[in-house]
Write a structure and sequence with these properties.
The complex is a heterodimer of chains A (342) and B (539). Chain A has 342 residues and is of the alpha/beta class. Chain A contains 14 helices and ten strands. In chain A, strands 1, 2, 3, 4, 5, 6, 7, 8, 9 and 10 form a ten-stranded mixed beta sheet that branches. The radius of gyration of chain A is 22 Å and the shape is globular. The N and C termini of chain A lie far apart (55 Å). Chain B has two domains: 197 residues, MetI-like (MetI-like fold), CATH 1.10.3720.10; 216 residues, Orthogonal Bundle (MetI-like fold), CATH 1.10.3720.10. In chain B, 78% of the residues lie in helices and 1% in strands. In chain B, strands 1-2 form a two-stranded parallel ribbon. The longest helix of chain B is centred in the N-terminal third of the chain and has 32 residues. The chains are: A alpha/beta (342), B mainly alpha (539). At the A-B interface, helix 1, strand 2, helix 3, helix 8 and helix 14 of A face helix 3, helix 7, helix 12, helix 15 and helix 17 of B.
Chain lengths: 342, 539
């Protein structure tokens, strides 16, 4: 009996596999490769389908993985749209020839030039700031007006931070390289490294928790991790946010801003559908759905901020091209490696 | 020189009968070869030089330290527990006998996520401690789970069942007459353990631990989450931060050499000795009943192990899932995707391990070759094999279509995990009496008929164990699935990872629990199968 079972099972399973994907959808479809993972994104896609009758298929992954997959698929790639959560990643897709320029009066008129690629290879659709989180009982607010706060002797043993291979830290370093030059940026990384309270680990939320618990006093985080804690269902989490103060650095350089962006795939089977999706992303409805759960800033100032972010001051627009995040990414990782920032 | 000569002789002796095992070796070893070739020929650019100069030493030291600490913990967990449940009776013994392998159902990264939160600075333990004492986090010492030792602990928790399983089988097949002889010579329980039981179980201890260590070396999820810079984490950094997958492949060659070293060490220690496979006059071992403090101690040890490896991490995840918004759409679909992928691939891998086991049994070099390929693939992170597969697809222009993508994914699953399924089949086959097959052969039965009518009946229990292990392993696979799956093929592991990487633990808890749940039934079946089979086949 088991003998037969063993050899019949593969056939059954193969049947199961074969009947699963409906490979030839009847209606118009776009395929999205997304590096975001939010349940609200599904609502966004559903809203797009409801509005345009274009079905959406999604493949989520890390941006490096999606890039590798697309390179392999080449001209046969089913992807129409690429969504990445970092301008540096978008630059990489562009460099690999996986994006194509889009000319759209609507996109160009709506999105400020600094938040989109000059030739239309990608468009920022929501924005965020990488800011300083600190313990107000231990750190003077005057100190944290600049990213140089991390190199100040007073924060010796007080810095909590995540791994340098994290894209947010890489993009920040890329901006420092662009502004200060590699030598100065290396000095910054080395001095910050010397002030670590513990080896880098965990995500941004973990750094906020460490400050609240008193393990360290100062950290670098994306603003929305704090907002998510501040609006969390659990009172304990909200308490963490209450114990941590935020500073949007403005001295020496503006606050480090990054975007979630999207672009049209180079070999998009449905470019018109893809374009419609890009335009949907900056409609009031699309904008709201993009940021409700993530707590990012909308790219359109006219769109209401998500809950928890209402009281925040408007972000200053960056005065450098966001493409530098991609251009300096390798050098950024090299500098971190060099100073031993894991 | 003699080694070369031996290889030359064995090549000359390749016959038609070597073809199946050679094919199996090629299927399994193909992705490894692709990785090695890419690493050797394309991995030597500036990025490699930079990694070599700044980070490589740290990666290697961390990996070796991780292996040593994880190995030691695996031994501390597995040897006493397997010994206790086999030789003694104490309260809960029959439960522990099978329940101690439950941690096998939970992937390392799930354990890491759970433990990092549980023991973390905002976790229930430390929060409680601060509330109780009024201290702040810097005013007391607390073991740091996000560290080399913490990561080793987490890995040992989910990998010790490998050693526990092989040891349980080895202890059960210990010759009772030898033990009785030792007893009559006046050796006490402790002397019998150190001087008779342990030495004769040495091959099993080393084999089981080596398997666990290979898995530990290839781990990415737990090490990355806990911030430990191992070689595998370095491979990912080379690829994701530096965009140089080939430099990553060159790092992966170091992982391959670590496995070869483990293999070599395992063979060296085994020397001429082999498993005590056919103790003549086998009788069922009569466990000794423990009383009082001893019984309490035994129960306490096993309860503690089960608590650390399973109850705490799973309990904490359940807590997280309950407090979360619970918005985990399409979990059921992901469940079926996971089960059907793992099911199909585990049958494929099982078929290959059968072919290899038969070739090994017949003493063929082709079998040894295929086995080595399988072991190397086992120590390479799934993502590296998957990148190799993407390169191959690209070079041969094989892209496009969900069927091809699925085919490659299944191939990588098979390549990566066949080694884990090989052991039980091999062990079962070794115990099969050669006389039966010879009788069948002398009666003129064809090869297929001999297999179906004679051998299958004998190796079936081992085969079942092999398939269950393969299934559970594949259910947990993450990095290759992430890279190679076609549209709409999110598995549970992919869902759990997506949430966890966005730092939303409550949402990640549900799919994490679902993976464990899906693996639980096979693991329980496996454990029962193994305890049954070690007794039955001897009587």
């Amino acid at each position: 009996m088991p003998f037969k079972t063993v050899f019949i099972l593969p056939l059954l399973l193969a049947g199961l596999l074969a009947c699963a994907p409906n490979s030839a959808p009847e209606s118009e479809t776009i395929s999205i490769y997304s590096a975001r993972h939010y349940d609200s994104d599904q609502m966004l896609y559903d809203a797009f389908t409801a509005k345009t009758r274009i079905e959406v298929r999604v493949r989520e992954g890390k941006s490096a993985g999606l890039l590798e997959t697309m390179k392999t698929e080449g001209e046969k790639s089913p992807a129409d749209i690429i969504i990445a959560a970092d301008a540096g990643s978008l630059w990489r897709f562009q460099q690999a020839g996986l994006l194509q320029p889009v000319r759209s009066d609507l996109l160009e008129a709506t999105i400020p030039a600094v938040y989109r690629e000059a030739d239309g290879y990608w468009f920022g659709v929501s924005k965020r700031a990488r800011i300083i989180a600190y313990d107000p009982t231990r750190i003077e607010p005057g100190l944290v007006k600049s990213y140089r706060a991390f190199t100040d002797a007073s924060v010796q043993g007080e810095v909590c931070i995540r791994s340098s291979s994290n894209i947010y830290n890489l993009s920040l370093m890329a901006e420092l390289i662009e502004r200060w030059g590699a030598e100065e940026a290396t000095r910054w990384a080395g001095a910050t490294r010397a002030h670590f309270a513990r080896p880098p680990s965990g995500g941004d939320t973990a750094q906020l928790e460490s400050i609240a618990a008193g393990e360290c006093a100062i950290a670098l985080v994306n603003h929305y991790y704090w907002v998510r804690l501040a609006t969390h269902a659990s009172a304990e989490k909200r308490e963490i946010a209450q114990k941590v103060a935020l500073s949007f650095p403005s001295e020496g350089m503006r606050t480090h801003i990054n975007v979630t962006g999207a672009g049209l795939a180079a070999h998009a089977p449905n470019p018109a559908g893809g374009r419609a999706f890009l335009e949907f992303l900056i409609s009031p409805e699309g904008q709201a759905l993009l940021i409700t759960e993530t707590k990012e800033y909308p790219i359109l100032e006219s769109v209401a901020r998500p809950v928890g972010l209402e009281g925040f001051a408007p972000l200053p627009d960056p005065d450098i091209s966001l493409s530098v995040y991609g251009r300096h990414q390798i050098q950024a990782q090299m500098i971190y490696d060099q100073v031993g920032w894991n | 020189m003699s080694g070369l000569k031996r290889i030359a002789t064995s090549i000359r002796h390749v016959s038609r009968r070597d073809i199946p095992a050679l094919m199996a070796g090629l299927i399994i070893g193909g992705p490894v070869m692709a990785t090695v070739l890419i690493g050797l020929f394309a991995g030597g650019g500036d990025i490699w030089t930079h990694i070599f100069q700044t980070a490589l030493m740290g990666y290697v030291l961390n990996t070796v330290a991780l292996m040593i600490i994880t190995g030691a913990l695996v031994l501390i967990f597995a040897v006493p527990s397997a010994y206790l449940v086999t030789y003694y009776r104490f309260p809960g013994q029959s439960l522990f006998h099978w329940a101690l392998i439950l941690p096998l159902a939970a992937p390392g990264y799930v354990l890491a996520i759970s433990y990092a939160d549980f023991l973390g600075v905002s976790g229930p333990l430390q929060s409680g401690l601060r509330e109780l004492t009024g201290l702040s986090a810097r005013e007391y010492w607390f073991p740091d789970i996000r560290s080399l030792i913490g990561c080793s602990f987490v890995l040992a928790c989910c990998l010790y069942p490998y050693a526990y399983l092989t040891l349980r089988v080895a202890f059960t097949s210990q010759s009772v007459s030898t033990l009785e002889a030792a007893k009559s010579l006046g050796l006490g329980a402790s002397a019998r353990f150190w001087r008779v039981i342990l030495p004769s179980a040495r091959p099993a201890i080393v084999a089981g631990t080596a398997l666990a260590l290979m898995e530990a070396v290839a781990d990415y999820g737990a090490a990355d989450y806990l911030g430990v810079q191992t070689l595998t984490v370095g491979v990912f950094r080379a690829w994701a931060s530096y965009g140089d997958a080939a430099a990553g492949a060159r790092l992966a060659i170091l992982l391959v050499s670590l496995t070869l070293f483990l293999q070599w060490a395992e063979r060296c220690q085994r020397g001429a000795a082999s498993f005590d496979k056919s103790a003549k006059g086998w009788r069922k071992l009569t466990p000794i009943r423990l009383h009082g403090k001893q019984a309490l101690g035994a129960s306490f040890f096993c309860t503690g192990l089960l608590t650390l490896g399973f109850m705490i991490p799973m309990g904490h995840l359940i807590g997280l899932a309950l407090e979360g918004s619970g918005a985990s759409g399409s979990l059921l679909k992901a469940f079926w995707r996971s089960v059907s992928l793992a099911g199909l691939a585990s049958l494929g891998a099982f078929a290959l391990s059968l072919v290899i086991a038969f070739a090994l049994q017949a003493g063929r070099t082709s079998g040894r070759f295929a086995q080595l390929g399988a072991l190397m693939a086992y120590a390479i992170p799934g993502a590296v094999l998957a990148l190799g597969a993407l390169y191959v697809q690209r070079s041969f222009n094989l892209s496009g279509g969900p069927v091809i993508a699925l085919g490659f994914l299944v191939l990588i699953y098979i390549s990566r995990f066949t080694a884990a399924g090989l052991g039980p089949v091999q062990a079962a086959l070794q115990r099969a009496p050669a006389s039966l097959t010879q009788a069948a052969r002398s009666l003129g039965a064809s090869r297929w008929r001999r297999f179906r009518a004679v051998e299958w009946g004998v190796i079936w229990p081992g085969a079942a164990a092999s398939m269950l292990i393969l299934f559970v392993e594949m259910l947990k696979e993450l990095p290759a699935t992430l890279l190679l799956r076609p549209f709409d093929w999110d598995t549970l592991a992919v869902r759990a990872y997506a949430y966890a990487s966005d730092e939303r633990l409550a949402a990640a808890a549900l799919p994490s629990l679902a993976i464990t749940l899906a693996g639980l039934l096979p693991v329980i079946l496996l454990s029962r199968q193994l305890s049954k089979n070690t007794f039955e086949e001897k009587t």
